[in-house]
C-alpha cells in the first residue's frame, strides 16, 4: 500500500521544486559554457585584470578613500559604502558559501588570457559581485551622481567572474541580490531613508 507521506501534496511540491532547480542549473551551466566557448580576445586581458583588481574589494575601498577626502555628502557615501561592503562580504563568505557548498566551474576551455587563480571557497554566491553591488548601491543612494558609474562597474566585476571561469552566472546573480539586500540593511541601520532606493 502506498505511503501517504510520499504521495501527498508535500511530495509533489518537493518533486516540482527539484525539477525546476534542475532546469535552472542546466540553463546556468549552458550560459557559462557559452561564455567560456566564445572567443573574445579584445576583452580577455581587461576582464582578467578587473577581476583581480576586485579581489578583497580593493576597487571599492580605493573609491571610498577618495570619497572620504571630500567633506560632506561624499564622505558620508564612503562610510555607507564601506559598511555595506563589510556586511555583504560577511553574508556571502560566512553564510552563503558555507550553506550552499556549490562547487566551482570546470575551466578546461579557459584561455590563458582569462586565467585568474581559482578560489578555494565555494562558488555560490559571488562575493566579488555582492561587495561591488553593495558598495554601488549604498554610495549611489547617498551620492546619486555616483550611482551609474559604480553600478556599471559592479556589473562589469560580476561578468568578469564568469568570463574568467571562477563563477557560474547564477552565482553572480545571487551575489548581486545579496549585495543589494546588504546595502539596504546597512543603510537602514544607518537611518538613511530606504525610499531613496526606489527614487
Protein model, in words:
By secondary structure, the chain is mostly helical. It is 70% helix and 0% strand. It has helices at residues 4-7, 9-37, 41-53, 58-68, 73-100, 127-142, 147-163, 169-189. Helix 5 (73-100) runs antiparallel to helix 6. The relative contact order is 0.15.
How would you summarize the topology of this molecule?
Layout: H1 4-7, H2 9-37, H3 41-53, H4 58-68, H5 73-100, H6 127-142, H7 147-163, H8 169-189
Helix pairs in contact: 3-7, 4-5, 5-6, 5-8, 6-7, 6-8, 7-8
Name the descriptors.
disordered C terminus, 199 residues, 8 helices, mainly alpha
Would you tell me the structural class of the helices and strands?
mainly alpha
How many helices? The count is 8
Secondary-structure element string: HHHHHHHH
Average pLDDT, all residues: 89
Question: How much of the residues is beta strand, in percent?
Answer: under 5%
The biggest sheet, with number of strands, parallel, antiparallel or mixed sense and barrel status, is: none
End-to-end CA span: 59 Å
Low-confidence stretches: 194-199
Computed Rg: 19 Å
**Percent helix:** 55-70%
Tertiary shape:
globular
Give the structure's gist in a few sentences.
The chain has 199 residues and is mostly helical. 70% of the residues lie in helices and 0% in strands.
Amino acid at each position: 500500500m502506498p505511503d501517504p507521506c510520499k504521495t501527498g501534496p508535500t511530495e509533489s511540491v518537493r518533486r516540482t521544486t527539484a525539477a525546476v532547480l534542475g532546469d535552472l542549473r542546466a540553463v546556468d551551466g549552458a550560459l557559462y559554457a557559452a561564455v567560456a566557448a566564445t572567443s573574445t580576445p579584445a576583452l580577455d586581458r581587461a576582464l582578467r585584470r578587473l577581476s583581480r583588481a576586485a579581489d578583497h574589494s580593493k576597487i571599492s575601498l580605493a573609491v571610498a578613500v577618495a570619497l572620504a577626502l571630500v567633506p560632506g555628502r561624499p564622505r558620508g557615501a564612503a562610510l555607507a559604502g564601506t559598511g555595506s561592503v563589510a556586511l555583504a562580504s560577511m553574508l556571502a563568505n560566512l553564510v552563503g558559501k558555507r550553506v550552499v557548498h556549490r562547487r566551482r566551474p570546470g575551466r578546461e576551455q579557459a584561455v590563458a588570457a582569462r586565467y585568474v587563480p581559482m578560489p578555494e571557497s565555494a562558488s555560490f554566491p559571488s562575493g566579488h559581485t555582492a561587495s561591488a553591488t553593495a558598495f554601488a548601491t549604498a554610495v549611489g543612494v547617498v551620492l546619486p551622481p555616483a550611482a551609474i558609474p559604480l553600478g556599471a562597474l559592479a556589473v562589469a566585476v560580476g561578468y568578469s567572474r564568469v568570463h574568467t571561469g571562477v563563477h557560474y552566472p547564477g552565482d553572480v546573480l545571487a551575489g548581486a541580490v545579496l549585495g543589494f539586500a546588504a546595502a539596504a540593511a546597512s543603510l537602514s541601520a544607518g537611518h538613511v531613508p530606504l525610499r531613496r532606493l526606489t527614487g
